[in-house]
Write a structure and sequence with these properties.
Elements: H1 4-8, H2 12-30, H3 41-77, H4 81-84, E1 88-90, E2 96-101, E3 107-112, H5 117-139, H6 148-160, H7 167-201, H8 205-252, H9 258-264, H10 272-312, H11 314-334, H12 338-361, H13 363-369, H14 372-429, H15 438-497, E4 515-517, E5 524-534, E6 540-552, E7 558-562, H16 568-576, E8 585-587, E9 594-597, H17 608-613, H18 618-623, H19 628-637, H20 641-647, H21 656-659, H22 662-676, E10 680-684, H23 692-704, E11 708-713, E12 724-728, E13 734-738, H24 742-782
Parallel strand pairs: 4-8, 7-11, 7-12, 9-10, 10-11
Antiparallel strand pairs: 1-2, 2-3, 5-6, 5-8, 12-13
Helix pairs in contact: 3-8, 5-6, 5-15, 6-15, 7-8, 7-10, 7-15, 8-10, 10-11, 10-15, 11-14, 12-14, 12-15, 14-15, 19-20, 19-22
This protein binds adenosine-5'-triphosphate.
The site of adenosine-5'-triphosphate has 12 residues, from helix 16.
């Protein structure tokens, strides 16, 4: 026979008691004595959760059906959804509709609300004032409490929850509701727990069974509430991240070109991609997590202490809280600055990630240079820096965890036991007068036990709530780090977004005294403009050209000549608004009428069509009334029609920067000009990789299309396509020539003669080279390659030209 006592470890007496209880159970069920009160809280809660869940389920089902229906209509409406993929369109109210691929040949759409530029303009003063106030605060010594974190959070909060009636508010309110609900349910569960133990001791099977049923009923809303808190936590984090990212994208990617200007500002912000992708996500997670990790214990603390005060008296509550306060002070002192640690880790992770990205982006160039060893050592260095820091963080966390666990888990629980036991012991020392008879004392004992169980549960929950609050000190600390980084990002975005924005004397952009005349229809005009490299804080750094002045009429072409690094591209940077205009007057056509071809052609992710129409989208192209036939025509004009034959069609997606040759890249750039058809195009060494005959052809093509061009180059040979030359010698010396004037024509003739004589010398050289090669070929036929070769003095190359 199986020995139950040996198996379970229970004594025979225990097993007998258990069997008796089970027997009673069976009897009570048989007699149908268990009475469920349908108006009791567990039943009502269970039913309301059931109805609520069904309601929520129905809501989401209907919503899902509607979304699917809308997608169906959208896909029906768009003749060829596959072509619309990854594109967007502007709606009448200014919102942007983005089409996102969904399955094969299908798209779904998301509406991005129109950015509220007025809000952004107003917001920048919040950031400016904060920076100024912070500087004043830093000068004050011995400040007891620094509200920096709270102030930063208050400012960012306006982005997270921009108005009361928004999705995030409803998520936050629902979160509060469920947090309150959970605390209330914990109270009910604690009471029920005590009740069940009491029934067990009293061997009241009927009540025991009833309470067990209540327990199972209440478990449903309790589990639902726990899951809802976790769900809302994630949704809230997503909501925060969405709002923040939209705000950042609006500021980062608009006409102000903050994405470029912020790169000049590397003093404050390094690896901005890391800030936008990683820090914003971590900040959102950390903040939304803090609501549940701090909100719940906070509510628990209030509820439980009010309840316990009735049972244990105010003295006990004061004792408990005095303990909390003391340990909080102790832990606060012992807490390392996790905020700074996590902020540093994020920075180091960003640096390592960037090194990896750099390797991937430039793999071909690195391959040619055989740069594996140096790249490896760089990667190793940034990885080691990261590892050293993570190691330090782990060590610091270990020591703190020991202290934290000892104090919060064990000391506080012991404290809880003491206070929960107090009423029992006090009752034993001073028994109540009413409990004189034996029966009454028995009842009292059970009552005491019930009360002890409730108090113990609440005390432990209270200790748990308190300890979780203390644990969240660490989380708050981490949040401080993330908030600081996100705030830094937003501050710098505001700083560079507005050209005249001033953050105080050090960071001020207040030297911008130049005037820009847009919509100038008579060409491009520079008047006394200094070309200056901006410093990292936006002020004037290195002057390149002083008081530059010239004017070219519409339909005239200008060649800017000068040696490497003299400031040719910098002139284009000023026209494009990438660099500030410190002084002088710049008159230029509308931004839509100027197009810039940078030295290095940029290729976007996407198909072949996207490369030709960049920076437009396919939808833009359709709206402009163009189609693929027109693109083919453009390709033929730049002599690239073979590309279409080679690739098959315009929808082929490839890593285009690796696919095109140097010359093809430049011709694609010219194709972009033809597609855009601007009044003026700035060509920065845009034809130096194509052969001279193609170069001739391309310049003539632009002339035929009546597109004026400003060419930046160091090759005087290009002057034949231009009407004006701006020759830059150094900072103070530059000359502007009108090539149509007699005098200049003469000087050009001279220059051409000079070039021709140089060319004839080159030809002589070529001939001499061929002679040498022929001679060497003859030698190799009968001479051992290893042996030294002595050339006859007549065939020795002369040094210099
Ligand atoms: N962001 C920057 N920060 C610091 N210096 C810069 C920056 N951009 C350009 N410079 C410097 O400004 C000078 C002029 O640069 P620019 O690109 O205008 O030369 P360039 O005349 O176009 O030369 P190239 O013919 O080689 O293209 C160079 O010495 C360059 O190093």
């Amino acid at each position: 026979m199986i020995n139950i006592s040996r198996l379970t470890g229970y004594k025979k007496k225990d097993v007998r008691n258990l069997l008796l209880i089970l027997q009673e159970f069976v009897i009570t069920y048989k007699d149908n004595k268990v009475k469920i009160n349908y108006k009791s809280r567990p039943v009502i809660l269970f039913l309301s959760t059931l109805i609520g869940t069904a309601g929520v389920g129905l809501y989401f089902t209907v919503k899902n059906i509607l979304t699917k229906y809308n997608e169906y209509i959208l896909n029906e409406k768009l003749a060829r959804p596959a072509l619309i993929r990854q594109s967007s369109t502007i709606l009448k109210n200014g919102s942007r509709e983005i089409f996102i691929p969904k399955g094969k040949n299908k798209v779904s759409s998301i509406i991005i609300p129109k950015p509220n530029l007025d809000t952004y303009a107003a917001d920048k003063y919040l950031y400016k004032n904060f920076v100024i106030n912070q500087r004043i605060q830093e000068q004050k010594k011995g400040v007891l409490f620094s509200s920096k974190f709270l102030n930063q959070l208050t400012i960012i909060w306006r982005i997270l929850i921009p108005k009361f009636y928004c999705k995030n508010t409803s998520l936050l309110l629902s979160q509060c509701f469920f947090l309150l609900m959970r605390t209330w349910l914990s109270l009910l569960v604690a009471k029920l727990d005590g009740q069940i133990v009491k029934n067990l001791i009293a061997a009241n099977g009927r009540k025991f069974s009833r309470d067990l049923i209540y327990w199972l009923l209440i478990a449903f809303p309790a589990s639902y509430t726990n899951a809802a808190i976790k769900y809302l936590d994630s949704r809230l984090s997503l909501g925060f991240r969405t709002n923040l990212t939209r705000y950042i994208h609006d500021m980062y990617l608009d006409k102000a070109m903050a994405y470029y200007k912020i790169s000049l500002n590397t003093n404050d912000i390094e690896n901005i991609d890391q800030y936008i992708t990683n820090d914003v996500a971590k900040f959102s997670d950390s903040l939304s997590g803090l609501f549940s990790s701090m909100g719940k214990p906070f509510i628990d603390l209030i509820f439980f202490s009010v309840y316990l005060r009735d049972n244990l008296g105010s003295g006990a509550i004061i004792g408990i809280f005095a303990n909390y306060f003391l340990t909080a002070v102790l832990l606060k002192r012992a807490t390392p600055s996790f905020g700074k640690l996590s902020s540093r880790r994020t920075h180091l992770e960003g640096a390592y990630f960037n090194d990896q990205l750099n390797l991937m982006t430039n793999c071909e160039e690195i391959g040619f240079y055989k740069g594996s060893i140096i790249e490896k050592s760089k990667l190793q260095e940034s990885f080691s820096n990261l590892m050293i820091h993570v190691n330090k963080e782990i060590n610091i966390s270990f020591a703190y965890s020991v202290l934290e666990d000892y104090v919060l888990k064990y000391t506080w629980s012991a404290w809880g036991y003491i206070f929960a036991g107090l009423p029992v012991f006090l009752d034993e020392i001073w028994p109540a007068e009413t409990a004189k008879s034996e029966k009454k004392s028995e009842v009292n004992e059970r009552q005491n036990m019930r009360q002890f169980i409730i108090n113990k549960r609440l005390m432990l929950s209270l200790a748990d709530a308190g300890s979780r609050l203390m644990y969240s000190i660490k989380e708050v600390n981490q949040l401080t780090g993330y908030t600081d980084r996100v705030f830094d990002l937003l501050t710098n975005l505001h700083k560079v977004h507005s050209p005249r924005y001033d953050f105080g004397s050090k960071f001020g952009f207040k030297d911008f005294n130049g005037t820009i005349q847009n919509n100038y229809n008579d060409g491009v005009r520079f008047e006394k403009i200094p070309v200056i490299i901006p410093s990292k804080d936006g002020s004037e750094a290195v002057p390149l050209i002083n008081d530059l002045g010239f004017s070219i009429k519409q339909n005239k072409n200008l060649l800017i000549l000068g040696s490497n690094g003299c400031g040719k591209t910098s002139i284009a940077r000023i026209i494009a608004g990438l660099w500030p205009l410190y002084r002088g007057l710049l008159s230029k056509p509308n931004d839509d009428d100027i197009f810039y071809l940078p030295q290095k052609t940029y290729f976007t992710t996407g198909n072949l069509r996207d490369q030709i129409i960049y920076p437009y989208s396919y939808n833009d192209m359709l709206e402009m009334g163009y189609n693929d036939d027109y693109l083919y025509h453009i390709l033929r004009e730049v002599k690239l029609e073979h590309l279409l034959k080679r690739e098959g069609n315009f929808n082929v997606v490839k890593e285009w920067k690796d696919v095109f040759s140097g010359g093809e890249k430049q011709r694609i750039s010219i194709a972009r000009v033809l597609f855009k058809n601007p009044k003026v195009v700035i060509l920065d060494e845009s034809t130096n990789a194509v052969s001279t005959d193609v170069e001739d052809y391309l310049f003539e093509l632009l002339q035929k299309k009546k597109i004026s061009f400003i060419t930046l180059s160091h090759r005087p040979l290009l002057m034949k396509y231009h009407d004006f030359i701006l020759e830059i010698e150094d900072q103070d010396h530059w000359k502007f020539h009108d090539l149509s004037s007699e005098e200049n024509l003469k000087s050009i003739d001279n220059e051409i003669k000079d070039i021709e004589s140089k060319l004839s010398q080159v030809e002589k050289w070529e001939k001499r080279k061929i002679d040498i090669e022929n001679y060497l070929d003859g030698m190799y036929e009968d001479i051992d390659v290893e042996s030294s070769i002595e050339l006859p003095s007549t065939l020795m190359p002369k040094t210099g030209m």
